Amino acid sequence: MGQKLKIAGWVAVGALAGALTTVQLQAVARGSLAPLPLEELQQFAAVFGMVKSDYVEPIDEKKLITDAISGMVSSLDPHSQYFDKKSFKEFREGTSGRFVGVGIEITMEDGLVKVVSPIEGSPAYRAGLKTNDLITKIDDTPVKGLTINDAVKRMRGEPSTKVQLTIFRKDENRSFPVTITREEIKTQSVKAKLVEPGYAWVRVSQFQERTVEDFTRKLEDIYKENPGLKGLVLDLRNDPGGLLDAAVAISAAFLPDNATVVTTNGQLEESKSIYKAAPEYYLRRSGNDPIRRLNEVSKGAFKKLPIVVLVNEGSASASEIVAGALQDHKRATILGSQTFGKGSVQTVRPLGPDTGLKITTARYYTPSGRSIQAKGIVPDVWVDETEEGNLFAALRTREADLEKHLGNGQDEAKPLSEADKAAEKQREQEREAARLRLEEEARKNPGGRLLPEFGSEKDFQLQQAIKQLKGQPVQVSKTLSERKEAKPEE
User: Assuming Cys at both sites, which of 43, 109, 332, 399 could form a disulfide with 307, CB separation 3.0 to 4.6 Å?
Assistant: First the structure.
């Protein structure tokens, strides 16, 4: 391992209004560089000179170069990114699970900021922001034309300061302003409870610095009160990922000692790694090992306890590492729907004291050698999100839907077969039906929750997971099927 895990990094997807994304953090001294393409660099210098001298108004040289770097990096894939001074600071703050902002997970849609979900208990959550809300203005600045990082910067600020967001709610066909007071957001990444005697539910919503400690303490508490546990549901639905070492540690809580959790492979030698269920692969510093403590408290019960892992289209990256490891080692039944499919690793390389480059350096593979990139984890048991069917999952974006996404590197994308085309046509019809259903439900119950809360008594997939643990019949999906990466039509 050596230096490779000294600073653990993010393996995630999406962006928070606290800039939580992807990565394995490494500072690597490069001994040699490939020969530079001098002719192309001369052309770049010529264009730079023409823009500087001929453009209609003066141009800031530093901004011009920064924009050129950003454009070069963003053209690679959806997850590579150049960090300027402010975004680099925000990124490093984000790994702690604390930041000052409004508290929403966001993405971009049609040039606008789209709310993926408000963080529970955050100012945005209390202000009533909803999934799929579009932010059209931040204070007096139109969002159209901003990058997602620019939008994040504008929503973040000092504690107790205010920001006004103009919201367009599509299902209500109206725009309205919301003034939100910024505060420090402390994301709670682990929830747990006893669903019924003998069966526990633990939800990990993101892999952060405190996740492993919180995870083990909650399991310890459950075990102390209920030493006769018969089964556990590990809920990774809508978990976008996070710290790689946290994912390795959570896997180690259930796997045999030294079992392979994940491997990575890329061009550079340091990108070729194997991560195992052992302290040296997930502890950042010597000292307290929460996983060992959990095993001692529970007398190794969690190494043998039957497990069901709940996943869906929003389960990505680090959560896919956990699901894939438990699936390959046959330590858990994976239940739900096909996951997001982000199987790439990004490395952050500092470019100076306050800027950095996040660049895709490797793909990761499950213990059996499967690449999840643009494919995801295929569940062992397909289950819809509600008893009435898969109501809104068809609207969710996956890695394979992203422009310029990295290929699988294992299974060559092929033109879809007739059966695959028919399945895609069916999915398109389901997407349209889901859109119409979403609009209708929102009209009937404005501001209401459209799907039951994870872990609630009405959580259909959780009910099916408990049945799976009990050996009872599970209501499997009649419509869900594996999505394959298609070769683009020429």
Answer: 332
Nearest to 263, CA basis, from 250, 279, 281, 246: 281
Mean pLDDT for back-to-back runs of 10 residues, the chain (490 residues): 38 39 38 74 94 95 92 92 85 70 84 82 91 93 89 92 95 93 86 96 92 96 96 95 92 98 94 96 87 97 98 94 98 96 89 91 95 94 91 71 78 66 73 70 57 89 98 93 61
The CA-CA-CA angle for residues 210, 212, 218, to 5°, reads: 100
31/115 Cα distance (integer angstroms): 43
Q: What angle do CA 242, 248, 249 make, to 5 degrees?
A: 100
| 180's tokens | 């939100």
- 87, 317, 337, 371: the catalytic one is 317
Residues 116 and 106 sit within 8 Å (Cβ to Cβ): yes
How many other CB atoms are there within 10 angstroms of residue 436's CB atom? 10
Identify the active-site residue in 133, 245, 328, 459. Answer: 328
Phi, psi of 45 (to 5 degrees): -60, -40
> Known catalytic residue: 317?
yes
- The pTM score is 0.76
How would you classify the pairing of strands 183-186 and 174-181?
unpaired
Residue-range domains of the chain with CATH = 100-186 (2.30.42.10), 190-344+367-470 (3.90.226.10)
Query: Of the residues 137, 342, 358, 484, which is catalytic?
Result: 342
Amino acid at 198: G
Bridge partners (DSSP) of residue 58 are none
Phi, psi angles (nearest 5°) of residue 51 = -60, -40
Residue 274 and residue 263 in contact, taking contact as beta carbons nearer than 8 Å = yes
Q: How far apart are the first and last CA of the chain?
A: 44
Collapse the DSSP code of 44 into the 3-class scheme (helix H, G, I; strand E, B; otherwise coil) and give the result.
helix
214 as an active site residue: the answer is no
Tokens of 150: 């620019």
Write the single-letter amino acid at 54.
Answer: D
Strand partners, 243: 10
